[in-house]
């Protein structure tokens, strides 16, 4: 079958998760467990959607030196591999998980450099996929060195021209320019959205006002993640608050990406905003309970969705 969803991963990553009970800086620490996964936001979103039965393609950029890890993952997950290979190695992100203190420390390495010609090549790959009849394109993650912040805005316009709806999960100038292209879904966290708007989103009212601002600018659905406090979702004149139950965190790898996948999955089902909030939050909770960028079985996600409290904040 031809893919119906494509994700764009311009700055993929090798996710190395190490479990270190009682991790202490400036000291010798002993690793209790370690695993390595093909990752990066676009790759994770694609994997999570494939887990729920969607036909998904991944395009973007990978380093030749360690591309075998990604090729194996794409084959195992049933993903269409439409990624370009560049000289060098795909970056490594290390997450140090301390189960005793319930803390996660991130070490993010720089990635491969890219240029305008590489973005043009990705756009050509995406154009080929769009010609097969894509319903959704997800543009996820940071941009590699050498690509300007307009990259996602350009790809948003390209996807829209090709008849697909667009989800965006990025930050900084790339987010600002992508928002101007009015994507169908955006999922910033409070820090990213506050930086974009130039104001502190210190309370729920501020987050709601910020979400309303993006809706007024033409974004279809806004999901603002607030960590343990949950997420605010806005669509049209509706605003909902999803409050997750207290949960043990096995790893934070891919939790935000899982929410993006949940939002897209909910959109394919035509769910209400309240049901979308519960399901997308359940995707995130599912990822938090797994080591590495993985989701539990679909039945577990459905059970988690029933534990999420959704409050209607506005329906004016």
CATH-wise, what's the superfamily?
Answer: Ribokinase
CATH domain fold name: UDP-N-acetylmuramoyl-L-alanine:D-glutamate ligase
Main sheet characteristics: 10 strands, mixed
Radius of gyration: 19 Å
How many beta-strand segments? 14
Second rung of CATH, namely the architecture: 3-Layer(aba) Sandwich
Strand order of the largest sheet: 5-4-1-8-9-10-11-12-13-14
How does the overall form come out from the CA principal axes?
Answer: globular
Which structural category fits the helices and strands?
Answer: alpha/beta
Mean pLDDT equals 94
State the end-to-end CA separation: 42 Å
Unreliable runs:
none
CATH class: Alpha Beta
Topology as a string of helices (H) and strands (E): EEEHEHEEEHEHEHEHHEEEHHHE
Total of helices: 10
Indicate how many domains the architecture comprises. Answer: 1
Estimated helix fraction: 25-40%
Question: What is the percentage of strand-forming residues?
Answer: 25-35%
Structure description:
By secondary structure, the chain is of the alpha/beta class. It has a single domain (5-315), classed as 3-Layer(aba) Sandwich (UDP-N-acetylmuramoyl-L-alanine:D-glutamate ligase), CATH 3.40.1190.20. It is 37% helix and 26% strand. The protein contains ten helices and 14 strands. The strands form two sheets. It has a ten-stranded mixed beta sheet with strand order 5-4-1-8-9-10-11-12-13-14, with helices on both faces. The protein has a four-stranded mixed beta sheet with strand order 3-2-6-7. β8 (136-140), α4 (151-161) and β9 (165-169) form a beta-alpha-beta unit. The protein starts with a strand and ends with a strand. The mean pLDDT is 94.
């Amino acid at each position: 079958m031809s893919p119906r969803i494509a994700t764009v991963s311009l700055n993929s990553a090798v996710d190395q998760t190490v479990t270190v009970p009682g991790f202490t800086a400036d000291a010798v620490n002993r690793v209790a467990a370690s695993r390595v996964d093909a990752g990066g936001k676009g790759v994770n979103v694609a994997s999570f959607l494939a887990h729920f039965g969607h036909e998904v393609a991944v395009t973007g950029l990978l380093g030749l030196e360690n591309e075998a890890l990604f090729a194996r993952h794409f084959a195992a997950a049933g993903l269409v591999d439409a990624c370009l290979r560049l000289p060098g190695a795909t970056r490594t992100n290390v997450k140090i998980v301390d189960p005793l203190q319930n803390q996660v420390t991130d070490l993010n390495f720089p990635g491969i450099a890219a240029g305008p010609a590489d973005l043009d090549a990705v756009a050509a790959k995406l154009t080929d996929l769009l010609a097969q009849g894509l319903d959704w394109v997800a543009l996820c993650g940071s941009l590699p060195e050498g690509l300007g912040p307009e990259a996602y805005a350009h790809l948003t316009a390209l996807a829209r021209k090709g008849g697909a709806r667009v989800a965006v999960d990025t930050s900084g100038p790339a987010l600002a320019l992508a928002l101007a292209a009015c994507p169908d879904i955006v999922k910033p966290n409070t820090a990213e959205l506050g930086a974009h708007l130039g104001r502190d989103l210190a309370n729920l009212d501020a987050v709601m006002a910020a979400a309303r601002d993006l809706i007024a600018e033409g974004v279809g659905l806004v999901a603002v993640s607030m960590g343990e406090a949950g997420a605010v979702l806005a669509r049209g004149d509706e605003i909902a608050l999803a409050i997750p139950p207290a949960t043990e965190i096995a790893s934070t790898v891919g939790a935000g990406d899982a929410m993006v996948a949940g939002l897209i999955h909910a959109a394919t089902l035509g769910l209400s905003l309240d049901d979308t909030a519960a399901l997308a939050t359940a995707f995130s909770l599912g990822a938090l309970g797994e080591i590495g960028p993985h989701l539990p079985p679909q039945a577990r996600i459905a059970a988690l969705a029933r534990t999420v409290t959704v409050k209607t904040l506005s329906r004016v």
